[in-house]
Amino acid sequence: MPTLLIVHHTPSPAMQEMLDAVRAGATDDAIEGVDVVTRPALVASAVDVLAADAFLLGTPANIGYMSGALKHFFDTVYYPCLDATMGRPYAVYVHGNNDTTGAVRAVESIATGLRWKRLREPVTVIGTPDAKDREACWELGATVAASLMPQ
To answer: pLDDT tens across 22-59, in order?
Structure first.
């Protein structure tokens, strides 16, 4: 069964709302035959990445960059997963209080180094997530999971 790995750093209520929406989309009843695994960034390992067919990455924007937790995840899995995960799809969601540009750029830069393929434009939220933001996160989760459904 194909596996979607959601790796997240969720230190705030806003990030929790976004994670909940992403997970709800990824596990919607219309999506069949896809296993969804959720791991905090400080717990996710190379074993998780190697076992996954696609990745959904969630981070707050901290001082113009991704969270240290997500950076630690990338530092831990980069070399063990570099060749084995080439070409796998990924997507990202980011929350910021002022700006998310640097965090998105950082995640995309590392994903490019891993030779992962971006499946969708990032979902970015500034401030408190509203219904439209939660819907965008839900759609992100559903889209990535649906891309893995067996034909």
So the answer is: 999 999 999 999 999 999 999 999 999 999 999 999 99
Look up the pTM and report it. 0.97
CATH number of the domain that 104 lies in?
3.40.50.360
Question: Of 93, 109, 102, nearest to 65 (Cα)?
Answer: 102
**Interval 17-26 mean pLDDT:** 98
Q: Look up tokens 């979902």; give the residue.
A: 123
* Pairing assessment for the beta strands 123-126 and 3-8 based on DSSP bridges: unpaired
Parent domain of 99: 3-146
Q: Which of 45, 146, 43, 51 is nearest to 91 (CA)?
A: 146
CA–CA separation, 68 and 60 (whole Å): 10
Asked if the structure places residue 26 within a domain, the reply is yes
- CB-CB neighbours of 115 under 10 Å: 12
